[in-house]
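Entry
Fold in token form

___
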Amino acid sequence: MSDSPLILRSDTGGTTTLTLNRPGSRNALSLGMLKAMAIELDSAATDPSVRVLVLKGAGPAFCAGHDLKEMRDARFGRDYVEALFAECTKVMLAILRLPKPVIAQVHGVATAAGCQLVATCDLALAAEDARFATPGVNIGLFCSTPMVALSRNVGRKAAMRMLLTGELIDADTAVRIGLINEAAPAAELAHRTAALASSIAAKSPLILAIGKEAFYRQAELSIADAYAYTAEVMANNVSKRDAQEGIGAFLEKRIPVWTAE
């Protein structure tokens, strides 16, 4: 229905699931969908009840990319296209900067900007029959923005083959090239994703936030600068109450009690 929420949210324990909810269009990323996702990500960033975020799609697919019909509509011009890609960039950066781990739970297809979304998430699990592609080259629209996330998560040769051919790859290939972490039987996908999210949610949220930020920042530095930066991060980390609690719990062979301090 046209008045259905574009993003559905559900909460279980420390895991929040955001579901792309345009099943009739294979969850194509319209401007409205991206704006709704940005709002949910902003909310999750400051919500202490959210420890881990899971992204998935309603209906037969995870996400088929941008809404091509909307992009081609004569009512919209260059301003719309620029706004669309600006909003998409905003969402992708929000995922990277979110101080909570984000897991993609993929079924069906993840193509073009949908593949970009998978590559942007911190972790990704997929059904064994899931397929991935950056097929823009086939329709005269090179997947330049998806290329940013893809090329930072898989080897150059693998990324270029996907970008230049537009061919679909299967879940096993996606695991092999590093696009996703794991391929699971479709019937087990939700359970395995929930188990992974639950395992991560049991960690200190403060330490997860410190680690995620450091991971992406050091990746853009030279190796010498990366070591200097992460040494400072670790020195600050040691001073946190949760670090002292975690070390004490390990030495005393007990379960730590996190305070997010």
Remarks:
- The two ends are 44 Å apart (CA to CA).
- The chain has a mean pLDDT of 95.
